Amino acid sequence: MAIIRAISRFVIGITFILSGFLKAIDPAGGALKIDEYLKAFHLGFMDFLATPVAILLACTEFLIGVCVLKGIKMRFFSTAALIFTSFFTLLTLYSAIFNPVQDCGCFGEALHLTNWQTFYKNIVLLACSIAIFCQRNKFKPIAANIWEKIYITAYTSFIAAVVTYALVFLPQIDFGQFKPGTDLVAIIEDTPQPEYSSTFIYSKDGIEQEFTLENLPDSTWSFVETRTIVSNGTESDAGTLNFILRDADGADITQQITGSGLPVFLISIHNPDKLDAKKIGTINRLGDSIATCGASLYLLNGTSEEIDGALYPVLQSDYKSTMALNRSNGGVTYINDGIIVQKWSARSYPFAKIDKILSEDAEILTANVIMKEQLFAEVCIAIILLMILIIRFISKRVYFRYLARKEAVPEESTSADVK
Length: 419
Prior knowledge:
The protein has 419 residues and is α/β, with parallel strands linked by helices.
């Protein structure tokens, strides 16, 4: 049973840590997946919960994984792990049978599993969770109660910092379809470009309905999302290789933009309502700086809402593609000769660096971005290993010595009294 406990604790710990950390790196992507599930279960009116639930899910999974692997508060966290795995086993069984979404998003954009693969994975996790739960009283504490609370606080602070940075700026590691180094020209050439039509989903009184660009509803309806329907009747998705840019007349100018061989900056707009006059003015000033340096700036609108006050061309795409290109509402993506080079959030526009960026070799810039992502991953792995393996080993030895000394004191006192 000791071997079973150790294996089960390792499997649950590693899987939950990996799943939670990858979700925490990209909470916006997690929110998209939560939103898909809500729509699949006809709960689209609760989409305002997508981001909070994605954050809570990432942090909770990471914390359960760390505490189970390290052996902290095992009675509580073994119960939490069992509840989690039981719920998601049932959910993924339903997904495998009825296929409401194509990918569960268990490991964010880093690793895609089919619904049946996800279900089989959860069966293994459920078995390990049951083993840990049944043996929860056999686990010995590795530290005093106060130190266990300190550890939990430290782990929570770490994962909360990762989530906060990704929300305020951009994910530190981009696992998405359009990560730096992606050749958009190759994608477009290798992917058949079917005929398409766009429909706009609006909701009213909890009911969603499709509209065309020529037949949009009145202001009493709320915009939900844009869907691009290709000729075979399937819906495009950020996980596919479709990348379509349309001008004001609806013409496909994707190859014209990405295959021009010139530097291009695209600004992803996911929610025009949150771009006030000040932010639009900032975008226009960035466009002026870019135009002065001989490059082009385009606003990429993923909704049917108009962008008022923009002085630079507005291109149309679907919502998921704009999100896949840049997670930040108003974020900038630099493309050179069809290659995605670098990205910035709406809070970190490179006003003073445009000249330097355009004068540097695009391949070197891309390599630097990729190396920074790898460095971040290595540092995070080192921190997690330090927090779990090394501190667990040290805490366990110190705590057990403390208990041994505590047990030895009464015996010494009793011997002295007898003499």
